[in-house]
Amino acid sequence: MDLKRCSIETQAVHAGERAGRLDCTPVSTPVQRSVGYLYESMADLDAVFGNVRPGYVYARYGNPTVSALEEAVAMLEGGEAAVATASGMAAVHLVLLAAGLRPGEAVVAARDVYGASYALLAGPIRAQGVRVTFVDVTDLDATRSAIEAQRPRLVFVETLSNPLLKLADVPSLAEAAHRVGALLAVDSTFTTPYLLRPLACGADYVVHSATKYLGGHGDVLGGVVVAPEGRIRELRELLKLTGANLGPDSAWLVLRGLKTLVLRMRQQCQSAMEIARWLAAHPDVERVHYPGLPQHPQHKLATRLLRSGLYGAMVSFELADARRALRFMEALRLCLPATTLGDVYTLVLHPVMSSHRSVPPAERERMGIREGLVRLSVGIEDAADIIADLEQALAASRDA
Question: What tens digit of pLDDT does each residue of 133-191 get?
């Protein structure tokens, strides 16, 4: 139909849409916001619906901008495929669903995972009749014994734990899990594919909160799972049902963030090492958790598993008590007391108040998350400026 001959009401709806393709390719991936897609042949539409041919039919089933992000993250992780979700926790939940957990079956998980992951496992997953066993993954013998005893469907760990930065020996855990027929899911948010590729170490799923280092600018919420093609097909079918899709605008922001991931991570890791050394020598700091320090109990493992000379951009340290930790955070002027991490900004968080608030106090104590613990996400600012701000805030906290 010639749109020029239609009424202005009709023209207002259709003008400028579905224009013919130009004989050129945009340098930057465009944002495709359409919910629905058209095909001249209903047979083609049916084939896309049935996964017989590639294409798009409805935003919950897939989106070109989101697909571009999924392809990029899968490539960075050295994986076959990926699926993006609305948040990191949506990605974790999707993996738990895909594992096919049923009443009476088991999950073995690292005890000091992110607070929301812990709460999901200890609450709703257990409430469905799943046996959830939390272990200290730094004790490899005890973890192997738990896996042998429980014979779980899934083993779930973080490459570097939040917030105590305990390292999971992913190759050894993959071997132990596969020996009993279990799957290994690894949350690699803290390490990113630049520092470690868990799939190459034997993991079955890699999970990211794309909100953090992948996006990198504190302006987008998202998650990604990377796995072999067959597992991603299962995840995508589950995503169609659960609806925790990542929107195209958010996907574009994460895709843009990936362009500078290596540059940001390299700078942040180098600064984190300098800051960790400075904190370790400070008289007001009782303890520093950072795998790059020789005194860290897993320093040798970190040196073996992570990219040479880089140990992550997260540093945790302990002050005398909660009152002093909160006074320290209030006194900061450059570093920002915000409840996230992985930004270009240096961010400080009190885990007891925020990230692990949902974990019972007795369990937090068992994890080693004490009242005076502070988590520092190092940004891309000059390390000397970050240290100067930490110094004045520590001095101010003495009044507490």
Answer: 999 999 999 999 999 999 999 999 999 999 999 999 999 999 999 999 999 999 999 99
Point out the domain boundary residue: 203, 232, 258: 258
Single out the catalytic residue among 111, 114, 213, 343: 114
Give the tens place of pLDDT for each residue, 257-314. 999 999 999 999 999 999 999 999 999 999 999 999 999 999 999 999 999 999 999 9
CATH number for the domain harbouring residue 91: 3.40.640.10
Rounded CA separation 392/398 (Å) = 10
Tell me how far apart the alpha carbons of residues 310 and 292 are, in angstroms, rounded to a whole number: 7
> What is the CB neighbour count within 10 angstroms for residue 379?
26
Note whether 95 and 192 are same-domain residues.
yes
Is 114 annotated as catalytic? yes
**Given the residues 37, 39, 60, 357, the one annotated as active site:** 60
- pTM to 2 decimal places: 0.94
Domains identified in the chain, total number: 2
In one letter, which amino acid is 279?
Answer: L
Annotation marks residue 187 as catalytic: yes
- Assess whether 213 carries a catalytic annotation: no
60 classed as catalytic: yes
Same structural domain, 281 and 172: no
